[in-house]
Each structure stands twice: as structure tokens, then as C-alpha cells.
Q: What sequence folds into this?
């Protein structure tokens, strides 16, 4: 194996939000930083639902709001429980917003450009094949038959984490620990979007849909309005999907798009993109035993640092923030004798003291809750049947308790219902 003859302070694997943010902060401090990205351009291999929470990004990027590719500010939130051809929806509207919609491709490219502007070198279409280790110390990466050396390696390779698996740090991903997302981007005129969803200017909508659109499999649908397109897709717990779906998951997305309550929003649109990606789900189960080793830090999805709040994912801001903290931890180690495991432990200390670990601990029960079939099948069904009895009045009307009793008959007992309500109220 040949050394390329040039040594870096830091090599970052992956130009997603975690990797590029780490690179940006390292380059800003003057460290000689190399980002290696296997995609044609940063973001070309990435995919997400569509909404990012802004506060952490404002802290780590200067003038983020002014410069970043923000499509719309989410001011309308919808959560719908679906059953058959009906939906019971909660809509929350506000003049304030703490999140925006965007394309992850554009945001990833923007983040990578920020790092490059600060002096980082970005090499795209380069796939790292292996982490290079000497006497237990990570010293570089292997690309084909060449070795590139650095003082610190930051692994931000995302959820597949094949390099960590090859290095014996993590085990092969289990389908029970991840979800699968399938998404379409549907081109629609911006004015049309505003009219259809009751929005103004660059206000946006985030819409989560739960119920029989996923055929009883834990997961849900999502719709986000971008500037002049709509992101529409489905997320399914992969382990359950493998056991219970006998056709291509894409067909579920098609059925979702053609659902009579959804189709009216998208029928004038044109599908311009289709993508699929894994999402960390049981983040505690898939997290590497440690996020710091001699010469190596792990950030973003590869580290299992994604928050699932049940009705929303926070992956991008969590990944970016962990990249920022990884850069800080390396800076600390560098100024205190070098990137030994002991010095790099600083990374976990920083993470533990940040909102990242605090939120992950606070919502640690969610992934178990999300495996409960009743939440995705029985309750959307029950609530829609109950709403139907209350609203579709012919001669006689139902009282609320009467409608509930009728709707729950044969579906769920009182004890299970109360237990589930209690669990949801504690975990979400
Ligand atoms: C369907 C879906 C919906 C989501 N919805 C949201 C949402 O609405 N909001 C939100 O905040 N988050 C959402 N997320 C999560 C979010 O996308 C991720 O948490 C976030 O992108 C993680 O960033 P990252 O930098 O850790 O990894 P990634 O974005 O996956 O980036 C990893 C990068 O590493 C590169 N790479 C991998 N291996 C190698 C290698 N060997 N050599 C070189 N390069 C390599 C990849 O090409 C990629 O560019 C969603 C995810 C999915 C799949």
C-alpha cells in the first residue's frame, strides 16, 4: 500500500451535515482538513424527509438564516390519523417558526462549501474503503490501494457505517434497529402550493400521517412543502416491513399519493425525484459502544445521534451539532497532548452537556413505543370511527362516550386503552 505523501490534521469521512460541520469548524481553527465523500457531490447520496430545526444551526454557522438554502418556514403543522377514506387531523398554526424545509442535497452542499471556504479540501467521488489502524491507534484511511494519514479521523459516514463494522467497532445493522424511508419529490408551482395548503409567501407546512396507509406496520407518512415542490413519503420500521409486506414498498408510497384525501394536493404535480434511505430508529441499540477511540471520533447517524420524537425526526441538526462538538473535542485534545483516547473522551463530555444527549435520554422510550402496532392501526381506526359517529349525523346523534364505546368494541379493551394513554403521555 502507498502513502500519498501528504499528511492532514483531520480526515473527515462523509460530507453530510455531521462531516461538513466538523470540517468547517476544524478548518476555521486552521487545521489542515480533508473531507472525503463517495457521492458525486455532497448530498447526492443523502436523503431526508424535509424539515430542519434551526436553533442549533444558528449557533454553529454564522448568519445561517441569511445564507443557508431555506425553502419555507414551517408555520403550519398537521398530524392526521388515517383510516379508510377518512382522516382526523390536528392542525397547529402559528406566526412563529423554529424550523424550515429544504432539500438535504442543497443543505449538504452549502455546509460543505462553508468548510471549503474556510480552507478544507473536499474530494468527491472518493469512497473510503477502510480505516487504517496501527498498534490500536487510528492513523488514517485507505482508498483503493493508497493510504492517507491524519492526526484525527472523524467518521461521519451515516447510518450504514460499513467502515465501523469493518473495523470491528459495531455489528452489522439489524433491521429491527432501523426504519426505511421512501420519498418522492413532486414538482408544483409555489403559488399553487400556497393555495392548496392555505399558506402565504414562504410559509411552509409539515404534515405527519399515521394509520392504515402503512398497513398496520409501525411508521407513517409525511408531506413537506418546499419552495416549488412537495416531499411526500413513507417511513416503515424495517424489521416489521420485511416480515409483513409482500410487495415493493414503493407501491405503498404510490397508494399513499393516490389516496383520495392526498391526491387532490399532488395531482397537478410531476414526480421529479424518488429516493430511499435508512434511518436510525433504536438509537441506543445501534450506537457504537464508544464514540471516541485513539485517533478516531464518530459523529452523526454513524454514532446513532438522531432524535425520534414520534411525530418528528431531528437528524440534521443533531448530526451537525455532533460534528461541531467532535471538532471542539479534537481541538481540546490537540492542545492537551494529542488525540489519545483519554483526551478525546472530551467529546462525550461535550455531548453529555449538550441538548443532544439530554434530548436523546429524555425521549429514550420512544423507539419502543413506536413498535406498538395499536398506535398505528387500532387507534387511528378507533378515532376515525368515533369521529364518524359524532359527525355523520342522520336522525339520531351519539354522545361522546357512546361513540367511543361503539368505536372501541372488538378493537381494544378499557385497560389496554388506559395503559396505552398513560404510556404515550409519559414517553412523548
Ligand atoms: C426518510 C428520512 C426522513 C428524514 N427526515 C428528517 C427530517 O425531516 N429532519 C431531520 O432533521 N432529519 C431527518 N432525517 C435524518 C437525517 O437525514 C440524518 O439524520 C442526517 O442526514 C444525518 O447526517 P450525517 O451527516 O450523520 O449522515 P448522512 O447525511 O447520511 O451523510 C453521510 C455521508 O457520508 C458519505 N459516505 C458514506 N460512506 C462513505 C465512505 N465509505 N467514503 C466516503 N463517503 C462516505 C455518504 O455519501 C454521505 O454523504 C431523515 C432521514 C430519512 C432517511
A:
Amino acid at each position: 500500500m502507498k502513502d500519498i505523501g501528504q499528511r492532514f490534521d483531520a480526515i473527515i469521512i462523509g460530507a453530510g451535515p455531521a462531516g461538513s460541520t466538523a470540517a468547517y469548524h476544524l478548518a476555521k481553527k486552521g487545521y489542515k482538513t480533508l473531507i472525503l465523500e463517495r457521492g458525486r457531490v455532497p448530498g447526492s447520496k443523502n436523503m431526508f424527509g424535509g424539515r430542519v430545526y434551526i436553533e442549533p444551526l444558528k449557533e454553529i454557522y454564522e448568519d445561517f438564516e441569511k445564507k443557508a438554502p431555506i425553502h419555507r418556514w414551517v408555520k403550519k403543522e398537521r398530524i392526521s390519523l388515517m383510516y379508510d377514506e377518512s382522516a382526523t387531523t390536528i392542525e397547529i398554526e402559528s406566526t412563529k417558526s423554529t424550523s424550515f424545509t429544504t432539500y438535504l442535497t442543497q443543505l449538504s452542499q452549502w455546509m460543505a462549501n462553508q468548510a471549503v471556504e474556510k480552507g478544507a479540501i473536499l474530494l468527491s467521488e472518493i469512497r473510503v474503503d477502510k480505516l487504517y489502524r496501527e498498534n490500536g491507534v487510528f492513523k488514517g484511511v485507505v482508498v483503493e490501494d493508497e493510504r492517507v494519514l491524519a492526526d484525527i479521523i472523524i467518521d461521519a459516514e451515516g447510518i450504514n457505517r460499513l467502515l465501523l463494522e469493518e473495523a470491528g467497532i459495531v455489528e452489522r445493522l439489524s433491521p429491527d434497529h432501523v426504519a426505511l424511508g421512501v420519498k418522492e419529490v413532486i414538482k408544483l408551482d409555489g403559488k399553487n402550493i400556497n393555495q392548496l395548503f392555505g399558506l402565504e409567501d414562504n410559509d411552509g407546512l409539515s404534515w405527519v400521517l399515521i394509520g392504515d396507509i402503512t398497513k398496520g406496520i409501525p411508521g407513517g407518512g409525511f408531506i413537506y412543502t418546499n419552495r416549488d415542490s412537495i416531499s411526500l413519503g413513507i417511513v416503515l420500521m424495517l424489521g416489521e416491513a420485511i416480515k409483513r409486506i409482500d410487495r415493493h414498498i414503493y407501491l405503498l408510497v404510490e397508494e399513499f399519493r393516490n389516496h383520495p384525501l392526498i391526491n387532490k394536493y399532488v395531482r397537478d404535480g410531476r414526480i421529479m425525484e424518488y429516493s430511499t434511505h435508512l434511518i436510525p430508529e433504536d438509537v441506543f441499540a445501534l450506537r457504537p459502544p464508544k464514540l471516541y477511540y485513539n485517533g478516531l471520533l464518530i459523529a452523526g447517524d454513524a454514532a446513532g445521534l438522531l432524535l425520534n420524537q414520534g411525530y418528528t425526526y431531528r437528524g440534521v441538526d443533531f448530526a451537525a451539532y455532533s460534528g461541531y462538538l467532535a471538532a471542539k473535542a479534537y481541538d481540546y485534545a490537540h492542545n492537551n497532548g494529542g488525540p489519545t483516547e483519554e483526551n478525546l473522551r472530551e467529546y462525550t463530555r461535550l455531548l453529555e452537556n449538550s441538548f443532544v444527549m439530554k434530548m436523546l435520554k429524555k425521549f429514550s422510550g420512544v423507539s419502543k413505543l413506536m413498535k406498538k402496532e395499536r398506535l398505528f392501526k387500532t387507534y387511528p381506526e378507533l378515532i376515525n370511527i368515533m369521529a364518524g359517529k359524532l359527525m355523520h349525523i342522520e336522525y339520531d346523534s351519539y354522545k361522546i362516550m357512546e361513540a367511543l364505546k361503539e368505536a372501541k368494541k372488538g378493537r381494544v379493551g378499557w385497560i389496554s386503552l388506559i395503559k396505552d394513554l398513560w404510556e404515550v403521555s409519559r414517553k412523548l
About this structure: The radius of gyration is 23 Å. The chain has a mean pLDDT of 95. The chain has three domains: 2-70+102-174+284-364, 176-280, 377-427. The longest strand covers residues 2-13.
